[in-house]
Every structure is written in C-alpha cells, then in structure tokens.
Amino acid sequence: MERHVAITGTRSIGDAPDEQLTEAFETYLRPFADSGAHFYVGGASGVDTAALQWLAKNTEAPVTVVVPCRIVDQPPASADVILPLRDEGRLAQIVEMGATLPGKAAYHARDRWMVDHTGIVIGFPRGDESSGGGTWHTLSYAAEQGKVRLIVPL
Q1: Is position 39 within any domain?
Q2: What are the residues facing 124 on neighbouring strands?
Q3: pLDDT tens digits, residue range 35-88?
C-alpha cells in the first residue's frame, strides 16, 4: 500500500545552512522514502523547493508538486527546479490548482488539498515562526483531519 506524505515548511530558510536542511531531510524524510512512499510538496520557495531537490536527488520515491495557481506563477527559483524535474520525468504529477491570484486563500486551499490527499504531514517551521504562518495552518488543518503529523523546527 502506498503511503502518501505531505511536506510543508517555511519559505524563509535563507540563513539555514544547507547542512542543516540536509541533516533534517536525512533524519526525518529518509525513513519515509521507501518504495511505498509518495511525497507531495507545495512548490514554493524555501523548504518546499529544498525538499523537492533533496527527494529527487536522494530517493526514487514519486513526488507530486502542488501549486496554488500555475507553475509559471511560482517564484523563478522554484520554477527553475520544478520544470527540469518535470522534463526529466522525475515528477509523478504537477497539480495546478488554478487560483487566479497567489495569496493566503490560494495557499491555504493548496495546503488543504495536500493534507486531504495524504496520511502524514511533515512540517518544517522556523523555530521563531508564529502559529499564524502557512506551515502552522497546514499542520493545524492536518490535526483537525486526524492526520499523523511530524514537526521538525528549523
């Protein structure tokens, strides 16, 4: 049986060393990345893109990228990672939610979609992030839905 895992996390990883992210992914994503896993990432900058790169390079697990609008509406640095992986056939699917404008409502709809399609949510919030951010919104929604949650502060 396939295990569906959503990844959510902070966009602000600018000062987080690459080694810290790699260690977090090795420790908390690797155990789930076996032949029965399917990962869902949000396609935003920060943890979403870093996790996508790590999964593509270090695992064979299928990955679905879910974006609130369209790929062309994503930050250029994120699109520059997503599009080559799509072209290489490395992505299982790209889900474009079709929102007309990026914003809180569109991001929250994307996050709820990912939670609704998965059984486990792994969140990587900034240690000092308020509970009002998108990562915590996603984790709270997952809790309301009775989903398993793993929280890894960065």
Answers
A1: no
A2: 9
A3: 899 999 998 888 999 999 999 999 999 999 999 999 988 888 889 999 999 999
